[in-house]
Design goal:
- By secondary structure, the chain is an alpha/beta fold.
- The chain is 29% helix and 17% strand.
- The protein has a five-stranded parallel beta sheet, covered by helices on one side. The chain has a five-stranded mixed beta sheet with strand order 13-10-15-16-17. It has a four-stranded mixed beta sheet with strand order 1-2-3-4, with no helix packed on it.
- Helix 2 links the parallel strand 6 and strand 7.
- Helix 7 runs parallel beside helix 13.
- The chain is globular and about 65 Å long.
Amino acid sequence: MRSRLPLVLFILMTSCSEKRAETLVNLKTDATFSLRYAQGFKVSYRGNAKLVVVGLPYPGARSGFQYLLVPRGEPIPENAQGARIISIPLQSIVCTSTSHIPLLDYLGESNKLTGFPSPDYISSENVRARIDSGFVQDMGIDNSMNLERLAVLNPDVVMGYTMTGDYGQFKKMEELGIPVVINAEYLEKHPLGRAEWIKFMSLFFNKEHEADSIFNMIEKSYLETKQQADSIRLKPTVLSGIVYGDAWFMPGGQNYASRLLRDAGCNYLWQDDHSHGFLELSFETVFERAHAADLWIGVGSNATLDDLQALDHRYTKFKPFVQRQVYTSDNKLGATGGSELLELGYLRPDIILKDLVKIAHPGLLPNYQLYFHRRLD
């Protein structure tokens, strides 16, 4: 189950035993399939078969994975060494991250989901209805998924992810004869790059054209909103994150969250930092630079200003706390408490961007209502 740690936007937020990816020969690129932002996967075609290469399945990986998608009933192409063979279109799938769920929803393939670790994290109304009707099995905790239950379910594919290169659990699944596909969307640096992974999911259902249309809509919405924000010269200063343990965690200057703030016309106070991960700073360092910030966006799971003050009374000394300009991203929760931001946010960065523009420049979107975010009272 991933409630998606890297997407805990403005919060906090193998050497697999795989072989080095072999290259299949005589493959051609389909002119109808293009990627404009996503860098983590590539697609090429050989007849009706598709070779999907995930080049960077986890941070620091020295090799990737290949998946050869072959239409049901057709022979496996020659020179398929090194590729995992998957029959398409999929008739069933087990996903392991809530961010996979909207990809199925938007493609009209939610009814193919048959299992998920800890389904309470899922917010999608379509999938919740399937869960309530008993069509989606609870597979247990993500890093110790119930393999006996998985073997009985016998899905066409398990779509997984790994952040550390630990492929052990997935190897056990493959020993059961169940193909595992690694989805590495969270490594994309551009918000639209993460959204473009809907094209990755579409390959397994032969819905490339549908995915292209969906992505074009998202891209258009994102770029139009960014263009509006680009017209504003006065950019509010922004602080993010809170203290965990002994350090204040916040997005690095080249982080995905920082990119969204920049595109929303904000002056994120650490935007000149060169790191892509999260910074760990002392309270004093943060206070010195950000005590007079205009906005504070992203305060963990704190639901009210009183909650924030109860954690650390020093938070009350920040200008956005005093002026009640503190925002969280828990405005949309599923029926069982799952975060809709963590589920839908990767696919719909345009909605996140509109939220941020509305917070930073309310006059640009006068009729827009915040979706993922809300101001703390």
